[in-house]
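worker-3 :: picked O-antigen ligase family protein
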Amino acid sequence: IRDPLRAYVLGARVGTLLALIIALYLSVTDGGRIGVGGNQAVFAFVAGVAAISAAIPLRKASRYLPNGPQWLVLGFAAVLTSETRAVIVVLPIFAAVETVIFLKRFSIRQQGTAYAILFAAIAALVVVGPVGSIISKRFAGMIEYYDTGHAANWEDKVSADIREVMWRSASNVIAAHPLAGVGSYSKMDYVRAEAGDKASMLDGFRHVHNTVLDELLNDGIVGLIFMACAFISIFVYLWRTADSWAMRRALIYFALVCGSYGMLHNPLLHEVTISSTMFFLAALNAAASRRIMAARRAGLTSYVLGKKSTA
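worker-3 :: tokens ->
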């Protein structure tokens, strides 16, 4: 592949469109939350990463798959069908930032017209469209519970109760085995034993739905430090070798969606989310490697912060 990043971004744009079309079709025909193999959170994460990737601008972009923030909007629409809070809360922020940056190229009058249309469309979707009902369903009951203590309108409170038991038990296990953890195969046995009479609530779970707690259970503080250092080093390298701020923003969005998702799930424990993560990092790394090799062939001795230099 002559240009891996271009191929990846174009593929992400096609994938975002297909994900939205299929998700909307399934929502209309089957109803309920849309997921990958029945896992709504996994679908939301993959669709979110695809939208972030699709928003990376390309030189001489295809007329049919143009650059722009619309990919984040389309990705957000697909994610809404999954009703996954961990991704829903961050993707609109990314779309808003990219929209503001994209519209700066137009005149003040054109920007004003565009913002008026956008605000009207958002208001319509929230008030009379499906967006408002989905957000209310997934957030309103939870907010009401923490504000008043009434749980009648919180449809999935049982999920929060399970996580509370899981995280409290996991924290106790980690406190007893802080350095090396208890291993990935036996960790849930330890967690269920710590849960006592509430152990039945955790039947069928293979991890504790929190990336940090999972890693501490698996390999302790030592493992968590190694994992954090690995990803931080990759992030720093890709940041330094990025050729535009748009690519750096994509890195920030990716880190934020991983962090948000990792608070309630774990992007490193499902083959689909792992593949999505690795494809994103590999595509950006391939682009960085191509730029560095091109700079060396041109006789440049330094290539820092994505800028060629003869220093």
